[in-house]
Specification:
By secondary structure, this protein is an alpha+beta fold. Helices cover 31% and strands 24% of the residues. The protein is built from 8 helices and 15 strands. Bound molecules: 1,6-di-O-phosphono-beta-D-fructofuranose.
Length: 329
């Protein structure tokens, strides 16, 4: 046992320290983020025991996306809703698993925040024990729920993700850089892993489902032909089936993840409010960017809470090249 006690920069401690730099801060956002840390521990517990306790497989239900619901999708969703039911500063929760927002507070005038989540990202990985994640976005409540939600992603006050892989990571931004924490299961706390993560301007990773190549629109095919066709191309392909895991790789190694539109799916697959907008905020806060190909993701005004958009996110140079391919058309 080391004689000098190990100093733990826990999530709680780090949030409070960063908040002290903002005398105007009320500490309420800190409480919401801390609560997300609690949800992360609950869901990672489910993941660790899923194969042992029969938590794999389907519930028999179909969700608003038309997808068959997995037991862990449902457990993940309840963990988020339960966590905010008694937190008096959150008014409503929006989730990929729920058609309508859940109002968790009767008196909206006092509430400050709306929390939007993709409880389990990469659900197709669940039953084969591969990495999955959770994605979250926090918005201020402004006058009405609809008004709070249907604003461009640039109004998000915080965003982030949790990754359930070889270790459990929580990565977030409140608009002052991107910070990651790893769950130390020995003390049951998230401790600081990296603060102020910077994404390189040009990267090494390409992450996309190339099996969809023939369905992609010409600018997308042109972009990927160009980057993979370069003789000296320095890219490696990494596509895990979980956006969170692929973006985390790109955060540290640079590159581009894309889930573009297809001839028959002009809106692509991913959801703007609780998948693309939060991860675009993380990328931008780390020096990268997020786009639909035609415009910055966080300039898009949503028309509905489950709206889908074509999505590419990653290093600035790759995203510029991607958008140039669209402009040329
Ligand atoms: P879910 O949130 O329903 O899991 O969908 C998102 C996602 O699983 C991403 O994490 C992943 O990158 C992509 O869809 C995989 O889709 P596909 O299997 O079509 O490549």
């Amino acid at each position: 046992m080391p004689t000098t006690p190990k100093k733990y920069t826990t999530l709680g401690r780090y949030l409070v320290q960063r908040q002290q730099g903002h005398p105007e801060a009320s500490g309420e956002l800190t409480r919401v983020l801390y609560q997300i840390g609690v949800v992360a521990k609950i869901i990672s517990g489910y993941m660790r025991r899923a194969a042992i306790e029969g938590l794999l497989g389907y519930t028999g239900e179909v969700n608003v996306q038309g997808e068959e619901v997995k037991k862990l999708d449902e457990l993940g969703n309840s963990a988020f809703v339960d966590a905010f039911e008694y937190v008096d500063i959150v008014g409503a929760i929006v989730s990929e698993e729920m058609e309508q927002p859940v109002i968790v507070s009767s008196d909206f005038s006092r509430e400050k925040y709306v929390v939007l989540v993709d409880p389990i990202d990469g659900s197709s990985n669940l039953d084969v024990d591969c990495t999955v994640g959770s994605i979250f976005s926090i918005r201020s409540y402004s006058g009405s729920l609809e008004k709070s939600l249907l604003q461009a992603g640039s109004t998000q006050v915080a965003a982030g993700y949790i990754m359930y892989g070889s270790s459990v990571l929580l990565v977030y931004s409140v608009g002052d850089g991107v910070h990651s924490f790893v769950l130390d299961e020995q003390i049951g706390e998230f401790v600081l892993d990296h603060d102020d993560i910077r994404m390189s301007d040009q990267g090494k990773i390409i992450s996309t489902n190339f099996a969809n190549y023939s369905k992609w629109t010409p600018p997308v095919r042109e972009f990927f032909d160009a980057v993979t066709g370069e003789l000296q191309n320095h890219y490696s392909l990494r596509y895990s089936g979980a956006l969170v895991a692929d973006l985390h790789q790109i955060l540290h190694r640079g590159g581009i993840y894309a889930y573009p539109e297809e001839d028959k799916k002009p809106q692509g697959k991913l959801r703007l409010l609780y998948e693309c907008a939060p991860l675009a905020m993380i990328a931008e806060q780390a020096g990268g960017a997020g786009t639909s190909g035609k415009m910055r993701i966080n300039d898009i005004r949503p028309e509905g809470i489950h709206q889908r958009v074509p999505f590419a996110v990653g290093s600035r140079q790759e995203i510029q090249k991607y958008e140039t391919a669209y402009r040329r058309r």
